[in-house]
Here is the input.
Amino acid sequence: MSGFYVLDVPEFAAVVAAARQLDTCRVHAVRRGYIYVEFDGVVEIERAATNLSEAVWFGCLTGGLNGKIVSFDAERIKLAPTNEPVVFP
Amino acid sequence: MTTQPGELSLVLNGVDHTARPTWKLRETVEFYRDKLGLPLVHAITAKGWGRAKEQHADFIHFFFDAGKGSTIAFFYYIGTDQPPELMVPRGYMAMANHTAWRVETEQELLAWQKRLEVAGVQVSQSIKHEILESIYFRDPNHYPLEITRPLRAVERIDGMDAELTMAAALELADGGGWKNIEQLWRLKAKHVDAHQRSQETVS
Here is the structure.
């Protein structure tokens, strides 16, 4: 299942809160330090919904991504499922 | 590394000093002692290191107190010119080589920012980076400096996450073909998947 992990620390909590507001996301309970935000199809998260500074925003997928980045800029992240390999030959 | 029975566990007890060369003696003393207000606490003067083969210049090695027993130190090599390769290059990569001093509160951080501005030092706005809030500036040699305050304590969860990040990073670095952070985030998710499954096995 596609999704991304968010480390259960205060500075990234706003990402989880923003994901909870989206119909495209299902937020799992915290497990071993990480919250898994599962998504179907394409998901879009606006930075404005997180109120994160750019310094934290641009690292907000650091927990790990099961999926791929369609686009990622200062305003929004767009993610999608993928079967592509992590490193292309 | 496992400590053997009877063996002392080795730990470091913070920073004693860091050091770098300067070719701007007066500006360096005035910057650290007078503008930052760091006490000049020690100065070594010597006729080279006795290393005649290297034509080692005579020098002064001087130290400013940076708090909690640590100092920031400089070498001034008398009668030498700065080699081009020791000039601080422009661009963000050279800023990675920096010293960051700690303060404890936002008020202290803002007071340092004000002090630098009043002293005519160009200083950044404060920036929050996950667990730190920092201001950035440069010394007369353009060495990058930072004053930072903790936004929270570093906890076990941070170390656990760092281990998973670096495991994925080492795998990518060793494998070749690593181009971007997306690859790291995608591989790290596999490590976090495994980390979560390993707990299920245990419990």
